Amino acid sequence: MLPEGLLCLLSASLAFAQSRTPLPINKITSLNTQRLPQQPSFAIPVHDTTPLAVSIALCSNASPNPRFFISNISNWDSQDDPGPSNLNGGIEIQLTDGQGNWTGLFPDGGILAVDRNGAGAVAFDVAVSDSEPFHQTLKELPLFGDTTSNQALLYSPSFLSVPPFKPTYPNYTLPAANLSQPELPASSSTPNFTLILSRTDTTKNIPRTGCFLLGPSTQKSGVISSQSVWARGSDWRSQFLMAGLTPATNYTAYVLQDSTKVSGPIYFTTKSAAFTCPLVHSLPFCPSVGYAVPLPSPPNAATYDSTNLPDTISTPLISYLANFTTVLTTFACGRDWYSPIVGCDDCQREYRSWLCSISFPRCGEPSPASPDGFTAVPAPPSATGIAASLAGKGVSSPQQVLSALLPQQTRDPPRNPFFPPPTTPYRQLLPCIEQCYATDRSCPPFLGFRCPSTSFNAGASYGIGYIDSADGDKGQGLTGVAQDRYGNVWCNLI
Length: 494
What we know:
Layout: H1 4-17, E1 21-22, E2 27-32, E3 41-44, E4 47-58, E5 67-71, E6 91-93, E7 99-106, E8 110-115, E9 123-129, E10 136-137, E11 143-147, E12 152-155, E13 160-161, E14 193-199, H2 210-214, E15 223-232, E16 235-243, E17 250-257, E18 261-269, E19 279-280, E20 291-292, H3 311-328, H4 344-359, E21 362-364, E22 405-408, E23 426-429, H5 433-442
Parallel strand pairs: 1-3, 10-18
Antiparallel strand pairs: 2-9, 3-8, 4-7, 4-9, 5-6, 5-8, 11-12, 12-16, 13-16, 14-17, 15-16, 17-18, 19-20, 21-23, 22-23
Helix pairs in contact: 3-4, 4-5
């Protein structure tokens, strides 16, 4: 039998060996550098069957920032803390924009050590997860819809794909012209999305973490007029309508998922105070329409949607689509094939997108940094829709791509004849020619659908050469996209 003194010493040693505060799994632990244990380290539990993800997010801004070191050798105090002077078999978790993570196995547990690094009071969150990291930057960005002078329409990243509609022969039935929103699958849940909107001049050099963006240090702008789940094209998203914004102001937007996963930032500028076009959105028969259109202000509402859009606009559009579908189905859809790649369902879907884009002309404004940056009017027959560079306008500056904006006067007939004549001048952002090409490629030849030629007058009604080159090389246009994360929108693509 061991001497009593040795037993006491062994008991004390065992108690000391488990003295580090353990970090729970699948739970966030909120900490502060001024209230750390005397030994500033934490025990990561044993987990040898599947990896654990350890993530960190700074919740306050400081310089310098604390540093974080992790080891998966063991969590016993006989194992020294990893640190800046001696990693002791560990590594440093590098922070980017205020957050970082590391994933690995912990067969004997592990240690997360905090080096204050001379920082003052810095709040931070730590989470250990048995799946993906709690704190991370999502790859997919929020989607910018459009703005008015004091409103913005924004969308979360896609959280679920809308199952493609694929009818089969002999019961080959296409979706109704007056399309309804699909039902969200009962087995799917909508993530908890939160939109954070701030003036861009207040968001420089801040941690891009959920706890910081939700905290009091972030100067938030605007109010959410409405938030809903919307099937936009092939994806389910959360749709946010913001109000109370300032005209001609740069804003930065983030969307948080479950308060810890960060999507963004994206940037945009509200329109000038003189901008008069209202937003149109939430139209089930045109689910991807979500931008400003040249209509009078809606009575007793801030925007147009399916509840207040005039029937004089929606009824002809739905009728056109119904007639097109009738003609399309004179072909033996599903039994005969006019293409090994596409079918009648693809044709109707692309035609709907094209019809909606030309039936709802989009209003726009040139960038505040380039007020003269829009396509000249009237457009010559050979116009490409690509605005000239500033250097081409006789200004000594680097080449700059300008949006396909065409000024519209009150005397000009509206592009959609069912729209009322405009009461004020506006600038129309032309549809991307690729919208027309997608329909042409997807539909059978007997329909006779054709797009205007880029060699003649296509540039008078479409933006040419932005996504694809003017010669049709895919993705080789001046920008490669219709819009980017910085609020630049070159042509309208829905």
